Amino acid sequence: MLIMLAVLLSSYRSCFFSSSSSSSSVLASSQLFGVPNGIAKYRSCLRYSVTASNSFVSLSTGDVNMQPDLQRTYQVVVAATHDMGIGKDGKLPWRLPSDLKFFSKITMTTSDPETKNAVVMGRKTWESIPLEYRPLPGRLNVLLTRSGSLDIATAENVVICGSIPSALELLARPPYCFSIEKVFIIGGGQILREVLNAPGCDAIHMTEIESSIECDTFIPPVDVSVFQPWYSSSPQVENNIRYCFVTYVRVRKSATALVSSSSRVNYNSSLDSTKFNVENFTFLPRMIFEKHDEFMYLRLVQDIISSGNQKDDGTGTGSLSKFGCQMQFNLRKCFPLLTTKRLFWRGVVEKLLWFISGSTNAKVLQEEDTHIWDANASRDYLDSIGLADRDEGELGPIYGFQWRHFGARYTNMHADYTGQGFDQLLDVIDKIRNKPDDRRILLSAWNPSDLKLMALPPCHMFAQFYVAHGELSCQMYQWSADIGLRVPFNIASYALLTCIIAHVCGLVPGDFIHVIGDAHVYKTHIRPLQEQLHKLPKPFPILKVNPQKTDIDSFVAADFKLISYDPHQKVEMEIVV
Ligand SMILES: NC(=O)c1ccc[n+]([C@@H]2O[C@H](COP(=O)([O-])OP(=O)(O)OC[C@H]3O[C@@H](n4cnc5c(N)ncnc54)[C@H](OP(=O)(O)O)[C@@H]3O)[C@@H](O)[C@H]2O)c1
What we know:
The structure is a single chain. With 577 residues, the protein is α/β, with parallel strands linked by helices. It folds into 2 domains: 37-264, Dihydrofolate Reductase, subunit A (3-Layer(aba) Sandwich); 292-563, Thymidylate synthase/dCMP hydroxymethylase domain (Thymidylate Synthase, Chain A). It contains 18 helices and 22 strands. It has helices spanning 2-10, 20-32, 35-51, 97-108, 123-128, 164-172, 176-179, 189-195, 286-289, 294-307, 345-356, 362-367, 374-377, 379-384, 399-405, 424-434, 487-504, 526-533, and strands at 56-59, 69-72, 74-81, 85-87, 116-122, 139-144, 158-161, 180-185, 201-209, 217-218, 227-232, 236-238, 241-250, 271-272, 309-311, 319-330, 442-444, 460-468, 471-482, 508-522, 542-545, 560-563. The strands form 5 sheets. Strands 3, 5, 6, 7, 8, 9, 11, 12 and 13 form a 9-stranded mixed sheet that branches. A hairpin with a 7-residue loop joins strand 15 and strand 16 (319-330). The radius of gyration is 28 Å and the shape is elongated. It binds NADP nicotinamide-adenine-dinucleotide phosphate (NAP).
């Protein structure tokens, strides 16, 4: 601590200021922080650097005798086309008022009204801002020039620096370490080519422009071996340009051997569980942090626990329940496998493939060491619901049977139903491929005449698919949902089904919308769920599907690879039957 204090006091370095106001602001700060008070302030500045470790980075020189330099870390805000074009003829090549609004909001908002944020930009970006809008109001404008060719009259809120490190060092020292909450680097090309994937970059807020627009200034792509999507908005269209807002967060300090393109994925292991180096993402602006899709699930849990209706249910356990709930998960950038507790990914995959195969035999899953259906397929349970003549493990005409053989006469799980009944799954795929605007792309597991033959009536009973802009979305209706234990699996299962069907139809996944009738929390799940609510989400993993497979009936578990799933620990909850 003392060493670092000495470093701070001695390392007032080479940042140069050509604007008189910036010099005076530094002068004012050294007057303000006269020695005794100053040391106290430096101390609290250092304390901040320890507690909010994501705001500062110590750059080790590798020489043990040399002191490390303290620099502010930063977040990048940029709008870029698919091939990473950001500018043309010294200007923005598009007019997107909503993007400018987003830019203003994210760079201006602070959690403490006494502080502001800094926007760091290259000289040419500064010059591209219309005179009447610069300096950007409400923010400290940090301008970068090597030549010092900027000719700025005394302007408040402007400092000029000769290098990126000197700007980040300046912002790490008083007065800026107190007065500046977040540092955003905003362009242009020359600056972002240096900083975009550099170790000090905590997050990248990128407006991803899908339309192809001619550019002459480019930046490198986001390094997906260290950054992972935190949030992605639904696509929007403005002035005929389709775009979305995506935030990537740094999860690893340095690049690993992680793969980024599906063709290079090793499908022999289904889960890449490489740990994140970064565990806490609260450095993100609140307006972004709270948009992680997992918060929808956590808010629903919280809402049911705090104001659900007391219900007696058939299980005798007792539950709290709400009626009519909806969650929407964006599948475009990542896969919604919850991170506030570890989920059994292999079980999700095996169970869905088992549905797709049309099987009704729980023993097939048991052989894969997946025991999700054991309780509803046991001898005692089948006897208790009047299905004593059934073999143990036989569930009756549940999901898979209805998806593949709707209307066929069910006899037992050993019979061959090939060609019998209506194959809804193939019909869905055929419609998506050949009549994508059809409004009746439906998959129903609810067959009233078969209900009495089922070990459990299908809770997730109905799905509708929708195609637009080359994307496949799915809305599923679930009349009864065990929010604590089963719903996280249901979300993952239908998200995976959407990804698989999109894949075999040559589309990309869009949204999964989960509509729930009776959403309940069993009383025995309240305590573990409250424990889970204390955890903060981490970035969702990325799903890669084996590109060699295009037939819905050809998939095996190893064809699905989940990249970078690093959740919190498992939360134990007992199964209520
Ligand atoms: N799409 C977006 O989100 C976005 C954002 C910002 C800008 N833009 C666009 O990007 C274009 C401008 O980008 P650009 O690459 O031409 O210029 P730029 O990066 O904005 O500015 C380049 C200038 O910055 C200074 N500079 C560069 N590297 C530096 C360093 N390491 N240390 C100190 N100073 C440094 C130099 O100034 P001196 O020559 O004075 O030494 C250099 O000429 C425009 O078209 C603009 O509209 C787009």
